[in-house]
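Treating backbone geometry as a discrete language has practical consequences that deserve illustration. The amino acid sequence and the backbone structure tokens for this protein are reproduced below.
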Amino acid sequence: MPSHNDNHGHPQEPVDTSAGYETSDVRITGIIVFLVALGIFVVVTALLCYGIGAALNAHMNKEDGPTNRWSKTVNIRQLGNMPSNPAMQNKVAELTQTFPTPRVQVDDGNEDVAELHQREDLLLNHYSWVDPSKGTVRIPIERAMEIIAQRGLPVAPAAQLPPLMTGDSRPKVTAPLTNGFARTAYEQELPAVQGNNVGDQPGAGKAGVE
């Protein structure tokens, strides 16, 4: 058996080479201890996570109260996907129209504004009853302007205003703030073939905001 000297020249114990390989490199005991410790750590961590989850669920159940039909968990995978067909789309459109107001606007309010202006045009440009029992009638705005131009406006008595304090002045309005409302781009782009097109009504497109 060969022998070796250390760095200081002292002889070392002879090395047995009859086995043909090194017999002292790997120690199974250390590997077993590591695997056992790892398994214990995993089990303890799992139990700890389960305990924390159970405590949180118990606290949320206590706060939310008992489970009822409104808080019942439903597996949506069993419902499947809704079929996409014209019949289903028509049904959804029907439900959307019959759903009580206020409803979510799907066109940024363009149609609502157009309908509002159409209703305003009907009141401004046509005769309509205000109170049939009293015989009061709403007249078109063009006719009202003609009557005012002929008869003039009634003059109200001057209001008794308190004296101004030092440094104050009375506000004066030199011009009307507006002479009407402006049509939206959505209304201006409506097809002219529509029977109730606001562009075909009297006075449409003439008013603008100053």
